[in-house]
Every structure is written in structure tokens, then in C-alpha cells.
Design brief:
With about 140 residues, the protein is of the alpha+beta class. The chain has four helices and eight strands.
């Protein structure tokens, strides 16, 4: 499996959109909008690819001089629990460090909090609703 940065608008980016749509959006009855996707040109887009198939993805969004936000973390249903998410997180953290960031923050779905806690992330604040489901702000100093 290869972990890599992908470019906006490429065929790999289209695979990333499909994966995110299938795992994160469709189950909630949501769709991407053009404005939202246009902003992704500025983000670090990360993919886990195996035999030409996207197995997982996430993105890093600059929040401040030393803070980056992890967004849109997704792993294909049949590959969850096989270490792809952990590998993506390690890659994203290293990439963030390489770009001079000292902290990663995220809005984690409540059902994923345990996964992120195992990787050293801490809940900051109270539960809130986003895209119709409970989330927590989580962060980790790099």
C-alpha cells in the first residue's frame, strides 16, 4: 500500500471524492457542493492506495501558523480495522511536522473518538452536532 499526497482534480482525486462520498456523505443523506470542493485546491490531500484502488484518505487544512486541521478521514468499509487509518494518521502527522505545524486539530465523529484517543488525541470541549451527528473537537501536539 502506498501513502501519498495527491493533486486536486486528478483521477486519484476523483477516487478520493467517491470514497468520501460513499463513507462520509451518502450514509447521512449529504452531498458535496461546488464551493466546498473548490476550497480543496489549497489543502494537502492524502491517500492510501493499493493496486490502483483508493483504500483510505484524509486531508490537512491550514488553520493557523502552527495549527493544521485533519478533515474527511475515510477508510473503505471492508478495509477498516486493518491499520490503514493508523498509517494515514502517521503519514498526516509527519507531513504536518514537515510543513512546520505543531498541532493537529479535528472535528471527530463520536464513534471515532476511541480510534483517535489510541493515537494520542485528546477531546477539547463538549460534544456538538455537525452534519447531523455528534462530534468532538480533538487535538494533538506534534
Amino acid at each position: 500500500m502506498a501513502l501519498k499526497i495527491i493533486d486536486y482534480g486528478t483521477p486519484e482525486y476523483q477516487q478520493m471524492l467517491k470514497l468520501r462520498d460513499d463513507i462520509l456523505r451518502k450514509p447521512l443523506g449529504l452531498q458535496f457542493n461546488t464551493e466546498e470542493l473548490e476550497k480543496e485546491k489549497e489543502h494537502l490531500l492524502i491517500a492510501a492506495v493499493d493496486d490502483g484502488t483508493m483504500r483510505g484518505c484524509c486531508m490537512l487544512v491550514k488553520e493557523g501558523e502552527q495549527t493544521v486541521r485533519l478533515r474527511q478521514m475515510a477508510v473503505t468499509d471492508n478495509q477498516q480495522g486493518k491499520g490503514i487509518g493508523r498509517a494515514l494518521m502517521t503519514f498526516a502527522e509527519n507531513l504536518a511536522r514537515d510543513h512546520g505545524f505543531r498541532k493537529i486539530t479535528m472535528h471527530a465523529r463520536s464513534n471515532a473518538v476511541g480510534f483517535y484517543e489510541k493515537l494520542g488525541y485528546k477531546i477539547v470541549g463538549n460534544e456538538f452536532e455537525e452534519v447531523t451527528i455528534p462530534h468532538y473537537v480533538m487535538e494533538k501536539n506534534l
